[in-house]
Design a protein that fits this description.
Blueprint lengths: L1 H5 L18 H16 L11 E5 L1 H15 L6 E5 L10 H6 L8 H12 L22 E8 L3 H13 L4 E10 L10 H18 L6
Parallel strand pairs: 1-2, 2-3, 3-4
Helix pairs in contact: 2-3
Length: 213
């Protein structure tokens, strides 16, 4: 849907899963995939000079972490599209208190388990794993799509505040009636379809491509 509605090519990146492989393997794999794309993208008919990153949930974490590393290295990105991401292992937020019981799917208990499996012995404030603690200055424009019925809602709200403080162009949309993982619900939930369509249009604009008629 992102490809069809943005007019841009979409490259899906896989990564090793915890607990068999723990941080920082996943961050390194995301960075390696991005560098491969920069070197070999033209061979696949892609314009490797115009790249935006995106992801949802854990994928949003990896996309943001990769963008921070790219920016620090002086390699340009044109934008970020992040859906209901997990950006730091903070389980005392208001959204965890309100929506962490699992009635809308994702729960605080599950998030504690996910983070423990991912981090292993790593420090929970390592900015490569928890990008809320990273230097966000210089990032390209960021589109944030947050689910209103999600224990991770405050992750996105906090990130939006930090991005604004870092003078990063930030576009935050909160979809109050939607739960975590709503991007998988576009076939039967109108608000989810609208959210993905809006993100696709924004990505197309950032990449300066025209979606098909």
């Amino acid at each position: 849907m992102l490809a069809l509605r943005s007019g841009a090519a979409v490259v899906g990146v896989g990564y090793s899963k915890a607990p068999e492989q723990r941080f920082p393997i996943q961050a390194a794999e995301a960075a390696a995939a991005l560098q491969w794309l920069r070197v070999h993208g033209a061979e696949k008919g892609l314009d490797a000079e115009r790249i935006a990153l995106g992801g949802d949930s854990a994928g949003a974490n990896l996309a943001l972490s990769a963008a921070v590393a790219e920016t620090a290295a002086g390699r340009a990105l044109l934008g970020l599209a992040l859906f209901y991401g997990m950006y730091a292992p903070d389980f005392e937020t208001e959204s965890h208190q309100q929506y962490g019981d699992g009635r809308y799917g994702l729960s605080t208990e599950r998030m504690r388990w996910y983070w423990s499996q991912y981090l292993g012995d790593a420090h929970p404030r390592d900015p490569r794993a928890a990008p809320l603690h990273a230097d966000l200055r210089g990032l390209p424009p960021v589109l944030l799509a947050a689910a209103g019925l999600d224990c991770l809602l405050d992750d996105s709200l906090c990130l939006a505040e930090l991005l604004t403080e870092a003078d990063v162009e930030t576009d935050l949309s909160i979809y109050p009636s939607l739960p975590h993982s709503f991007a998988l619900m576009t076939a039967w939930v109108r608000a989810a379809d609208s959210a993905v369509t809006r993100a696709a249009a924004r990505l197309g604009a950032l990449l300066s491509v025209r979606p098909p008629l």
